């Protein structure tokens, strides 16, 4: 790997799709050196043998997930691992030596009981839940800067929350009427060898899944609840789309009063005008996942329907970047006092 | 073409995707002989030169759209043409000689003003609107049998209406809360040479379009209104999905009372148990477009969300078959007193 | 399943892609009743629970692969199983009770040593290799009619052999110069849960595989050798294409003399003019896999390059139909004296 | 656009796929400022309104193709235009003011007659053909540094030539036996609104096109001819693959003598060991287009077939980057004495 200057980084779960995207982004980051490519399944194998896109860019072999040792060697640890793993490995010793950005759901939900209910497992480190900062940079920027442990948001929650947040915060929509219909590319399903994710099962097909039961539901509800100051219950329906990358959120809510385009637009601008990674599209332009592919952007927009007095809110992001690895890097930048966009200058790729 | 026995059929718009699917289905229909392949753009060219899948199956050349002449030669005319064309060509003389199944929207909406508003064009044959029967076979079967002119339903309205109809008819859902989020394969956009439908623009991409303004909205609202006996306003958002065929509808509505799975299921069964083309899936199975591909089936199912007191209704069909050509054939079968399923025995193709 | 009249059929390996396509075709076959859906991995599970496209069409559960019992119950057994399984199960008792169509490679290669070398396994039933008939219907029709055991050809060999056969048989090309560059959809890789076949690994990607070592090489060489009466060595390179179905073969060979288009065309016509499943395209039309999708057709054509004195031969088929299940049904039809096309009337589906 | 320091660049044909990729790459180039986005079809329209991926990154509107004016304003002009346009606009005045990188074929073929024959048009600037340097950087680096006018190579010729060059140059293969079977993503067909390039026509399909007649044939033959010092005639067959980006070349040739893996490998290493954009893969690894997507890399490898005494040479690149815009930037870097890789650090994106 090319020499970098300041921050030593380790990744656990480096051979998953989020992990490999972290590698892509960190390799191009001017202030980071990757020191540890952890992958339980591929220990001892050359990393570039698994992801040949890194051929001649990375010579290192995969290491294990010894987080204690890792904490001694690096400044920041990214855990891009299955639910429960980070919580089972983390401890005060680790956190006192290295900052941790957890890309799993372990520390996203403040109510441990709720977590255990939706995820069907015991939480192994409830003592760190309170401390962990939910790493939605546009909303929790200041807390992130001071954090030791970041709960990197889920892909759906990032896209959903950023699409809805301004209107909810400004009281323009009724929190009890929110319905989120989301569509995701297949990389969101991970790199596990399952029949359901085979090319022939996904291609030329679309389906809903996890209807009224998807684990990202409480995470979204929590974030929306913080925005409006009361408990929110939503319908959230994810769909699997035959494409590699991208999430599109189409959200519906009833308006609390008659509003003009300009009023709603002003709400979005209030929160996002200075955000470099949130783009509020021009009037009548619907976000498309292709327009953010490979980049850390979230594109949002809305449409008022005067007939039904509802507003349709739309958001698009690359689930592997802003929905996972990109946001993790953005969090790291904030935690280390770097330019928030460092390593995230990728321009969306069309076609 | 192979010899058929009874019904002579003509198609105007035979080189569009719906038209060519009509050809595929009618070629396999035991009682039909195709006598006229009309295509304004390809007059005089061999039909199989445009659709080489019919090579050695069809030797005929494309003819024009002379509907008067066509009416003299055939028993049934299918118009798979752009909006407005059928209305501009049809007259009493034609209807007295041949039955007409119009796959465009010209005769779907009973309120001519509403049609003209949403479609932005003057209606050229308002005098036939009242007579035309909306060809949603599962709902209007008896009227269809006696009709001279069928308004073949749109792809989205077919899928949406059949997914929602039983619950609305049985009063289980509140008509003012219906939100329909639909996803369609690209064949629904037609075969016109537009940049937006190029492979590189559609592939690896998903977007909403026609938000709060799509022309199928009033058609769906009309049908749902008939079901519940009062005016219905909905939100309908179509999305373009990178696949050739298939529509998936995910619809949301508030329940009017506490219901069990069995009660809702009973409502679906009441209307569809005897329907051969509507399959109510087993509990917790979400419809997938792949499972109906190439066939005339509509797969529907639902999920109750006790947290939000809403029900999520799902439906999947092949937009070119049940959403267009297949339903047209089903209508023809009914009009001519044939077995409703004749020519429609195709088993869905996986993968 | 609907009632059928004459032939009782059993399938071992019914839950693979070839197996499920057999089910689709046999369900539509007027003379066949499916009596046994064998699937080692899914014994006791409802077949339509695995392939929901058959929902309400098949109520049966999966059975095991007890071929002895199966032979007592059915007239024909299809083995759509991994290499080696059919050879390990078959015996004289079975063959004396039921005809067998083996879709694996076990009986395709007459030289058992060669088989064992390329497939890396011991042949468990070498005594039946001689008897087995290579089921390439267009070439071995008469032998097939009398056979008890059919070695159903591989997908690549079917497409390759039929594309090249006439020119080789007529001595128009030099057998030592044949190069076959083949491209296949992903269903050819089967339904096994492997990382390499995940959607995200196949989509937006193309690669060669098995270069100079693919197991279909000796099978193709054997068939081409029979055509020209001497040993043939070829280069065969398969590629994985991001689509579900379809094989395209582009084959190159040096012409043995100056020839006109008409002379080469006459060679194709000589062998295929009366074949209902081989379509020799019109001049300058290149076969496309889409034009045969879902059907039993093979489309072939050629182009002479006077500059290099080579001919480029092209062929396209649906690997799951003519490349597997469709050809198996065609073989069954021949073995039982039925119309060769029965159950195979599917018209290719576009788009 | 962000401020850049040194080189002012203009693009004619900025709204095609190659043009927009030039924009993407030049926006990330530390030494370039884009001053002119020329697009005949979109004059006066906001560039980011056509390519919304550049929303908030580019505010400029499209300009015309006034090359005289452009030459006065910029240091380098990229012409990503249809064949013939650059030749019809260029003159000594322009070349004396600005360097020109022509991405069309106008100046690639030294024999004007041959150009006119294959391209079916009169050459409007034959006087500059001799001067133009063929911009295959790895082979003509020194000439490129001194050039005023670069003929940027075609996508297929770049991939084909780089895959074959070392073996031909070293005399290891017989130039009379070269067969190139190439597969391309659909962006290579451009952004023109043609039925053949519609999503539904390309998806789930593969076909050969331009068989024995594709315009890149003489370009490849010229370059291979220079490598071996005599006229070369090849077979070149391109195929259209359902993916956006990527070209894969599978080339075949007879070996001139018995060689080991190491000998052939040494030939590749001799020419590419120091090349940063050509990666010779490890033994037995077949290049995949996904592994170079979005980057300027060409991945090459080979396999010896001792049975047929042929070698199979494989190459993969991103047709929009190394096959067009990336190589154009690489050429510009060389012409202006910059680091050859500046602006081309993109790491391939998986998945």
UniProtKB/TrEMBL annotation, chains A, B, C, D:
Subcellular location(s) per record: Cytoplasm
Pathway field: Amino-acid biosynthesis; L-arginine biosynthesis; N(2)-acetyl-L-ornithine from L-glutamate: step 3/4
Keyword entries, A-Z: Amino-acid biosynthesis, Arginine biosynthesis, Cytoplasm, NADP, Oxidoreductase
Keyword Amino-acid biosynthesis listed: yes
Main location per the UniProt record: cytoplasm
Enzymatic reactions: N-acetyl-L-glutamate 5-semialdehyde + phosphate + NADP(+) = N-acetyl-L-glutamyl 5-phosphate + NADPH + H(+)
PANTHER family the record matches: N-ACETYL-GAMMA-GLUTAMYL-PHOSPHATE REDUCTASE, CHLOROPLASTIC-RELATED, N-ACETYL-GAMMA-GLUTAMYL-PHOSPHATE REDUCTASE, CHLOROPLASTIC-RELATED-RELATED
Described function: Catalyzes the NADPH-dependent reduction of N-acetyl-5-glutamyl phosphate to yield N-acetyl-L-glutamate 5-semialdehyde.
The protein, known as: N-acetyl-gamma-glutamyl-phosphate reductase
């Amino acid at each position: 790997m090319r020499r970098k200057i300041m921050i030593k980084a380790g990744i656990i779960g480096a051979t998953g799709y989020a992990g490999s995207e972290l590698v892509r982004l960190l390799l191009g980051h001017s202030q980071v050196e990757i020191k540890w490519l952890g992958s339980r399944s591929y220990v001892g194998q050359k990393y570039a043998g698994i992801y040949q896109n890194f051929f001649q860019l990375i010579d290192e072999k995969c290491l294990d997930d010894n987080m204690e040792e890792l904490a001694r060697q690096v400044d920041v640890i990214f855990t891009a691992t299955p639910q429960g793993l980070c919580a089972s490995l983390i401890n005060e010793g680790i956190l006192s030596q290295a900052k941790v950005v957890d890309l799993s759901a372990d520390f996203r939900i403040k109510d441990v009981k709720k977590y255990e209910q939706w995820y069907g497992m015991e939480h192994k480190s409830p003592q760190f839940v309170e401390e962990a900062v939910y790493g939605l940079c546009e909303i929790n920027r200041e807390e992130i800067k001071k954090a030791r442990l970041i709960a990197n948001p889920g892909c759906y929650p990032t896209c959903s929350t950023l699409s809805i947040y301004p209107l909810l915060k400004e009281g323009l929509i009724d929190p009890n009427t929110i319905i989120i219909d989301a569509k995701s590319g297949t990389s969101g399903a991970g790199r596990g060898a399952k029949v359901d994710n085979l090319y022939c099962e996904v291609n030329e097909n679309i389906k809903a899944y996890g209807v009224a039961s998807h684990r990202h539901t409480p995470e979204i509800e929590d974030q929306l609840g913080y925005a409006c100051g009361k408990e929110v219950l939503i319908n959230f329906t994810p769909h699997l789309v035959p494409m590699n990358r991208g999430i599109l959120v189409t959200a519906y809510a009833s308006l609390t009063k008659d509003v003009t385009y300009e009023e709603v637009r002003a709400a979005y601008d209030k929160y996002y005008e200075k955000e470099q990674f949130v783009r509020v599209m021009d009037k009548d332009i619907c976000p498309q996942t292709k327009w953010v592919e490979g980049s850390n952007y979230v594109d949002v927009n809305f449409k008022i329907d005067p007939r039904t007095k509802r507003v349709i809110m739309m958001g698009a992001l690359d689930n592997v970047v802003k929905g996972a690895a990109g946001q993790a890097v953005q969090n790291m930048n904030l935690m280390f006092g770097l330019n928030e966009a460092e390593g995230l200058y990728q321009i969306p790729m069309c076609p």
